[in-house]
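Possible race condition, two jobs.
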Amino acid sequence: MAYIARPEAKLLAETMVAFANADGGTILLGVDEQGQIIDYLTDDDVEGELVRAMVMCRPPVVTEWEQHQFPDGVVVALKVARSPELHALMDGRVLIRQGRENRPPSGEVIRHLAATKSSGDFEAEPVSGATLVDLDKHVLDEYMRLRQERGSRSLRGNLQDHLIEIGAMLEDGTPTVAGMLLFGKSPQSFLPQSGIIFVKFLGKDARGRDGLAGYGRRVELDGPLARMIERAWNIVREEMRVEAVVTGLRRKELLEYPAFAVREALVNSVCHRDYRLSGRKVEIRMYSDRLEVISPGGLPGYITLDNIVEEHFSRNPRVVSGLFQWGYIEELGLGIDRMIEEMLENGHTAPDFEAKPYAFTVRLHNTREREPAAQRWSSNMNERQMRAMSYVEQNGRITNRDYRQLCPDVNPETIRLDLVDLVDKGLLLKIGDKKGTYYILK
């Protein structure tokens, strides 16, 4: 039991989260710690602060409230049940109720709560009306083959036993939400919100010119998760600009956005979205200056924008495990780190992450703060010089003698002038003098 004399959103949110993370409880509004009614509450007082408090909880805490009239005033009893999920406040704090206080648990306790609370309960629920026939045999065969190629342990029993083991099916043969998302013939027939929408806008915003539509292409994707991820990637790949870059004697295509960063954003959007939110699909919005991937549902558990790189928590662990075994997730828990690295290594700014109570957005910008090294080298350079730059990249340095061996048919004076030109362009740095001279990347 908790007593709050006057409803105030911040304290109310803290107490709701603390009760939901513990064993539940009742919050009495309009009553002091001694049980005395001290104020007269109105419906507007309670509803306004309760709405503000709900916005501060991630995910929202389910409550029921009753109003009781007494001679001294009105008391509102707000009932909070023990939640199957781990709840946090908007600032990332996790609280639990201990005695009469809302206390922050240690990191180890938080991890224990995350492990013991069934945040993935929805993905484990049966899909009403679905049977084994609604799962796609071809998709299942592909999953099993790729799973074995990854070196996973051999299966015990038949396929149905394995589906039960991984949480894709109940023992009576009914597919679960996770099973339908991963292996269903038509998951959207049962879970309409599980699709993906791709929209390519013409400019930097969603508005069109002269009252016309603001987009040039719109595609709705459906099917099991693996198929949608591949189709979404192929569409984004088709719409990305591509530059040709020459490194040494090799020609390489430089995509508008690094492939890994895009694929990681796509995989995360279907892995970690909140599938309980009906009417909301994953959205991929491609503008002229950025790519946005919007996933329904706020950040799960104790994850915040401040700890998103270091901490890892999954709202749908069965879906994550399935896509990992499939090969769509290379190494659990390292995707965000590598996404940031890929963007920076390709000259872009780091991705932007935006968290709202009911949506999480990954935003990749296509403008580059600097060009990748290979692209800088390729400008105003002859073939010999590109060969020399590749040599330096591989060996750390190059001498005049090394260069002559790379180009044995070229006049020594031309070799010398090539090196002077690379120094003048600011690509190489000359070290030493006379016979001890060598060149390194500047």
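Job #2 (started ~2 s after job #1):
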Amino acid sequence: MATDKTKTDQNLSVEQRLKSLYKLQTILTEIDRIKTIRGELPLEVKDLEDSIEGLHTRIDNYKREIEELKGKMAAEKEKINKSQSLIERYREQLDNVRNNREFDLLSKEIEFQTLEIELSEKHLNEFSRMIEAKTNEIKATEEDLTDREHILSEKKEELDEIVSETRQDEERLRQEAKDLEPNVDSRTLAAFKRIRKNARNGLGIVYIQRNACGGCFNRIPPQKQLEIKMHKKIIVCEYCGRIMIDPALAGVEENA
């Protein structure tokens, strides 16, 4: 298979390779244009999906924290009930004390349990305020979530519409590009793809415009232009590295 490919490469003239390469460039440029039409929509959709997932996680965390606070409130209420039971028992015992020492001990226990109740009630108030704050946070986050989900739905619909409109054209162009690749030798094709990948405008091959490189617009010496017009070898711009061809080979007028 590799041998057959090598033979095919050798049978292709430089002019044929360059013509096919330039045609390939025009097809890939059209594919790039289609991607530009889609613009930033795919990224916007992905960002919205990520943010929505984050909001769901935030809401789940708030709900978990509220349940934990409710558990703490239940524990504090149990403490209050226990302290109230103790106070009731101690007060009953006060009626049967035999000396001042027992009276003082029971009174201190009652005072201590009363303070415990006050502390638990303070905790209950704090937990209640925290639950209220987190409930408000949930409400605000859910409103934000609803807005973002609405925007996401619109963005997805817009993206689906654009993709639907351009999918057929893009698939056709990709097939045309694939069919053209065998008409370019593997070494030049690999170099073209590498240049195109690194080029800001996606141009790996350009024609001479007003005696300058059509990619970086640096002036091309007359001797170099003559060599390019001869179609005897692949010539690249010494400034930007793009493959260069003459306008005639690109099918455009000399002064275009």
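The chain has two domains: 2-36+185-250, 41-178.
Logs attached separately.
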